[in-house]
Design a protein that fits this description.
238 residues, alpha+beta, Aminopeptidase, 2 domains, 8-stranded mixed beta sheet, two-stranded antiparallel ribbon, 10 strands
Length: 238
């Protein structure tokens, strides 16, 4: 099965599994809900995504399977500044550090290899590294602990809190221990930070190589390099 991790766009909202489209556990302030909850949780989820994307940028990564030529979303991860995630203020290990972005949720569909969930989290970290974010934090659910969704806005089939063991497996460390909801952190200037540094170094080398090629001028023919009138570069076999 071929799986790729890509940023979610608003145009791709309808491709999300129904339970993901309807889950607004993180996105809606429960204190603002009336006794009957929300009338259209799916609309609220899409509205939240639209607002965050407009004000802050990409805030979700999705895992897309292309088995048998049919594309299907088999996992997703949502992240945003804590101020945009009302539920984050209600955890016993709140608040999220002011220099961190919150990873609210990362999960996969039943039967999908757990490594896909790890890849989703790593994709989130990679995106935030490129955007100059210092760290990412998440509230984890300790294995064996019971999670009360306390969500009148939607009906969550599974706990919309990331398994703490999954976060630790990726490289997160505890910064606020708790028997049920520890808060964990990943320093983006370390660990995955090497990738951004390597990419930057490669870009510099490429730029230097292109500059040198321009300076060489007439010597290009002797080296077996030809440039067409359209600017395309080809290398002759000697």
């Amino acid at each position: 099965m071929s799986v790729s991790i890509v940023p979610l766009t608003l145009a791709g909202f309808d491709s999300l599994p129904k339970d993901v489209r309807r889950c607004v556990y993180w996105e809606v302030d429960p204190s603002a809900l009336g006794p009957d909850g929300l009338t259209d949780a799916e609309f609220e989820k899409e509205a939240w995504l639209s607002m965050v994307m407009l004000e802050w940028g990409s805030c979700a990564q999705i895992a897309v399977s292309r088995a048998t030529g049919v594309e299907r979303v088999i996992g997703s991860a949502f992240y945003a500044p804590p101020r945009s995630v009302p539920r984050s203020a209600l955890f016993p290990t709140s608040p999220v550090s002011p220099d961190a972005v919150l990873l609210a949720w990362a999960g996969i569909e039943p039967g999908v290899d757990a490594v896909v969930a790890e890849d989703l989290i790593l994709a989130v970290c990679d995106d935030l590294i490129r955007r100059g974010v210092r760290a990412v934090e998440a509230f984890g659910l300790e294995r064996g602990a019971v999670h009360d969704t306390d969500c009148r806005a939607c009906e969550c089939d599974s706990a919309p809190v990331v398994d703490a063991s999954l976060l630790r497996a990726v490289g997160f460390t505890d910064v606020a221990p708790h028997h049920r909801y520890p808060r964990l952190r990943y320093e983006l200037t370390e660990g995955l930070g090497w990738k951004a540094s390597v990419e930057h170094a490669l870009e510099q080398l490429l730029a230097a190589g292109m500059a040198e090629a321009e300076l060489v001028g007439p010597r290009r023919e002797a080296a077996g390099v030809c440039r067409s009138e359209q600017g395309e570069v080809t290398v002759r076999a000697e």
